[in-house]
Amino acid sequence: MLCLGIISCSDSIEFTKYKSLPNASWKANKEISFEFEVTDTIAPKNLFINIRNNKEYAFSNLYLITELKFPNGNKIIDTLQYEMADKSGRYLGEGFTDIKESKLFYKEKKVFPESGKYVFNIRHAMRKNGEVNPISFLKGLQDVGFSIEKIQ
Fold first, then answer.
1. Separation CA 43–CA 151 (nearest Å)
2. CA dihedral 59, 145, 119, 62 (to 10 degrees)
3. What is the mean pLDDT of residues 114-121?
4. Residue 76 contacts by C-beta under 8 Å, 6 or more apart in sequence?
5. Phi then psi for 5, rounded to 5 degrees?
6. For 102, phi and psi rounded to 5 degrees?
7. At 57, is the secondary structure helix, strand, or coil?
């Protein structure tokens, strides 16, 4: 029964990949890129940003700048904010240890308009209050991932 549950859950995942951050620290203006191929231009998909953080992450939120590049050269740029902790400071996300994994919606029910190679770029946009420049090294983030799932 357990095997069937695992197999059926993984059937919805079309793409998933993680990139580890050296020393659990994300350098300012350091883009993380994911390349993926799209063949289905009809069915809508859910796109997620996956973040693994540890107890060194000192903020209750996370600002990201994303760029989705299409095969024809067009691109969509978004600035996004996600909650990473509740009001008491307890991290959101899944996990029993000091590492929490958050599955954050990026695009819901996205239909890709054309087939071909897409590139998804992401970088952090965290700044301290009153400062213009981004935080040089955003500590406490271990891995950044991107996933595409079929809608069941």
1. 8
2. -10
3. 98
4. 67, 68
5. -65, -40
6. -110, 130
7. coil
Structure tokens at 134: 């981004």
Q: Which alpha helices (H) appear in the chain, and where do they start and end?
A: 2-10
| Phi, psi at 81, each rounded to 5° | -125, 135
User: What residues have CB less than 8 Å from 120, skipping those under 6 apart?
Assistant: 33, 34, 35, 36, 66, 67, 68, 69, 146
- Taking a C-beta distance cutoff of 8 angstroms, is the pair 57, 141 a contact? yes
Q: Which of 16-30, 46-60, 84-98 comes out lowest in average pLDDT?
A: 84-98
Of 151, 142, 150, 152, give the one whose Cα is nearest residue 50.
142
Length of the chain: 152
Per residue in 31-78, pLDDT tens? 999 999 999 999 999 999 999 999 999 999 999 999 999 999 999 999
The one-letter code for the residue type at 119 is V
Instruction: List the structure tokens of 74.
Output: 């067009």
Cα distance between the two ends of the chain:
20
- 94: its two tokens: 């899944």
Q: Give the pTM.
A: 0.89
Provide the 8-state DSSP code for 91: B
As a whole number of angstroms, the distance between CA 125 and CA 28 comes to: 8
